[in-house]
Each structure stands twice: as structure tokens, then as C-alpha cells.
Amino acid sequence: MTDICLMFEVHQPLRLNRNFHRDLLSKPPTSKKDLFELYFDNTLNKHIFDRAARKCYFPANRIILNEIERFKQKKRQFKVSYGISGVFIEQCKQWNPDLLESFKVLARTGCVEFLQGTYYHSLASLFGSDRSEFIEQVKMHQQLLRTLFGMEPKIFENTECLYNNLIAKAIADMGYDAIITEGVERILGWRSPNYVYKAKDSSIPILLRNYRLSDDIGFRFSSSWWSGWPLTAQKYASWLAATQGQVIILFIDYETLGEHHWPETGILEFLKWLPGEVLKWDHLFWRTPREVVSYHNPVGEIYVNEYNTVSWADLERDPSAWIGNPMQNACYGLLEGLEPFVKGLGDEFWLRFWRYFQMSDHLYYMSVKGGGPGDVHSYFNPSGNPIDAFVSFSTVVSDFEARILAELQKPELAAKWILRRLPADKAFTFFYEFARPTHFVTSNLLEFAEVLKKINVQSLQYHMERGDFERWLSQVLGDKKLAQRIASIAQENIFGEKLRKRILTIVKARLKQLETLAAKGKE
For the segment 73-124, what is each residue's pLDDT rounded down to a tens digit? Predict the structure, then answer.
């Protein structure tokens, strides 16, 4: 018996406004809605969405629904799975609610499983060591699927199948039943992708995409030069029947069905006949991924360290489709660096924009790869030119950054920002002397004040002499006023407990002032 999992990635990005000019930088929009129109080319976005809905989404949904109903009462049913982004669902709500309803109809058949992912189809799983932003986006997507479809997703499919051991651990800790990634040779060696594995140092099962059989549909279907052309449902089913293993994961972009391969190629007819042709083989069963991991035990382990991260993109099947050149790396770094500033505002409006900019598509357009992968990148790029994509992104996000920094200048927000909790790598570690750390580490101003009460005086004098307090307060915490007041103590020539009392008096007074300002911002 071999299970067949047919999965579709459903996502449409919000493409940036390529006509956004620098003379618009930081000019206040008349409303928040205007800023959305300023940053994104929604005329183009709606045009592409409507075209894909007409050529792909509606016809493919109808065919899949008909085939589900055709085999519903049979012993072996037809089943599919969807990874559908939150950004796509937002576009459905805005531009075509009937399309969203057609997905709800599919959900009610009981033969469709929706996969958990990141709401914004982002690269957040690669951000930082704690992956807090990634976890937030996963939870957002989970709530969206639960609300719309009444389902509790249990199988995780990361953006573009990005995977490594740390991502697997984060997903396992969140209680998911399995994770999906690419069945690439460098992590499998001699082994087949057509089996269930488990992550190294974790119990979470891994389902591996069979990229050869998936790409036969996704990339080669309409290629007349290909030895397998023309690809019929009968021929493809025979290939599946001849493939050994527990499960064959077929995972493709949904837009393959009518948008990337036009209806004239016969792709929709292929979809229509495929369920029946597969079920002509007695040992083949259509399954959802959740069923697969309940039927099959892992046969081995997969180890993928973070420097060997896997994806389903390009020939390299790694993150280089998004962070493979200096332009992409600069933009990725800009996005990651904005996180504390955006979250310091505590405003969902600005947070939402920052997350829109995280969509993997923006960095994908900046790829300068050649050959076949380069052609694919150019096909999706609205300008067709990676440099233009870089200019558009950096200009828009620079404007966004300027607006964020302007917001943070408001007294109540500046106070809230200074009072924030820092990540572990930005915390202040107290030392007795050079190379002799204490066990005291502070991540915000309140903790700093508490440690000042009990730290050894020797440590206070050591850091005051070196100017460590003022540098951390000014350059890391962002409180130049407090840093200047602490620096002025050095001129007073005091030591021991008098020094402690003087520092504490200044810090506690500043802390009280900041807490009062921050409270006003909440009123």
C-alpha cells in the first residue's frame, strides 16, 4: 500500500508600488488606508488576483470538489491538502469573497486538510535565536484557519518548505503532529523521500516532498522538449504506481493549475482525470498528511543544522533564493533590525506593515541567479529586474523606517521604548573586574535598578571607571538623558556605598519619570 498526498500552496503576495518616489518619504498620509495605497501597487495586485481566480482558483476548486463528491461514497476517497496564506485570505475578503466561500465548501467535505504555516508567508523562521516572531505568525495563522474553516491544523508547512533542526524543535514544542519539507538528497543520502522520518533530537515526524514527481507537474507539464511530454493522468498514475515507499508527497503551487500552465495546455483536464486514474491501482490511496503520520511510523532520522537549511526553491533547495546576494542580505538585515523598533511602538497598524514587508516574495524578486532558476525568478518579478526590485523595496521600507523612528520620538512612546525588555544578546552583564563576570545580568531598566541595590560595590566602581553604564544606557537601551546623568557622577569623586546610593537615586528618579510618561501613552 502506498499513500498519495496531493498538496497545494495557495498564496498571492502584495507587490510593492514601483512608482514610490523619494520625495514622498515621511510625508504624513491623510489616513492609514492611504499609506497602504502608497506602499503597494494594489491595481496590479487586484489584476493578478482576479486573473488567477478566473484561470486557476475557481476552475480548480470546482474540479476538486466534483472529484471529492464522485468518490465520497467509495471505499477509497479522493483527498487533498492546502497551505493557504493569511495574506491570500485577506485578498479574498477584499476582492472576491465568493472565492473564499468556495474554499469553505471544500473544507466542509471532510476530505480536505488545511496546513499550518506562517500568516504572512514570511522568512520569520530564520529570524533571531528565540524565533518569537515566527511563533507569533504561526499562532495568527492557526487562529485564522480555526475561525474560517473550523479546523485545528496539526501538520506544519513552513514558508517555501524552509526547514532545519531548530525550526523542527520550535514546531514540535508547539504541539504539531508533523512538519513538511523538501526531500533533497543532501539530507537523505541514499534514502528515499517516500517514507516518514523524524527530526533529530525530536519526536516530530517529517514528511518529505518528492520533488521529481512534483516538478513533473509544476515545471515540466507543458514543456514539449521533455521526454515525458505530453503528460496524461493515466501515464502519471502509472509512475506513482511504480514508485516504492510508504507515501508520495506531491506538493505544488496551486497557480500551476491554469495560471503557470494555461488551461490550453490541458492541465485542468489532467487534474480532472488524475483522481480516478490513481484509484484504478489497488495499492494506491489518496491521504491527507495527518492520516499518513497516523498510519506510518518513522523509519529513520533527518539531521539538518541551521547552516544547511532546506527549502523547495531553485536547484540549490536552500535559502539562497531569498538571502543569496548582497542586495537580499541588506534588505533581510533591515527587516530583522526593525523588529524591536516596530514592536516598541505597541501599535498593530505599524506591526502589520512590517509583517507585509516580510513576505518572502519581496526578497525572491531580488535574486540574480541565471539559468532556469533565474527565469523563474524573473517570471514572478513584477518589474523583471532584480535591481529595480531592490530599489523599490529599500525605498518603501526606508520610508517606513523613518515613520517608525518619528513615532518613537513622541515622549510617551520614547519612554515605553526605553522601558522595553532587551533580547539576551543586548543585556548588561555585571563584572567584578576584567574577565570575572558576576551572575547578575539585566535586560531592562527596572532589573538594572534592582541589581544596583545588591551588586558588590567593587563591580559598580569597575564599570563606572570604564564608562560601561553610560555606554549601555545610551547605545543599547537608548536613554541618552540617563546616560549623561550617570556620566556626571564620575566628576563627583565618590566611592563605596555613597557611589551606590548616588547611582540608585538617579536611576530610580528616571525610572519613575519614564513610567509616568509611558502610562500617559496608554490613556
Answer: 999 999 999 999 999 999 999 999 999 999 999 999 999 999 999 999 999 9
Q: Which of 113, 133, 160, 339 is catalytic?
A: 160
Residue 160 annotated as catalytic = yes
Cα(56)–Cα(266) distance, rounded to whole angstroms? Answer: 12
CATH number at residue 196: 3.20.110.20
Q: Which domain holds residue 388?
A: 326-409
CB 358 within 8 A of CB 120: yes
Q: Please tell me the distance from the alpha carbon of residue 361 to that of residue 268, in angstroms, as a whole number.
A: 26
Residue appearing with cell numbers 463528491: 69
Q: Transcribe 2-16 into DSSP letters.
A: EEEEEEEEE-----B
For the segment 27-49, the average pLDDT, to the nearest whole number, is: 82
State which amino acid sits at residue 218: G
Tens-place pLDDT, residues 403-426: 888 888 877 788 888 888 887 778
- List of E strands, 172-265: 178-182, 197-199, 205-209, 247-253
Residue 149 amino acid letter: F
Identify the DSSP state of 421.
Answer: P
Residue 149 inside a domain? The answer is: yes
Per-residue confidence (pLDDT) for residue 130, from 0 to 100: 77
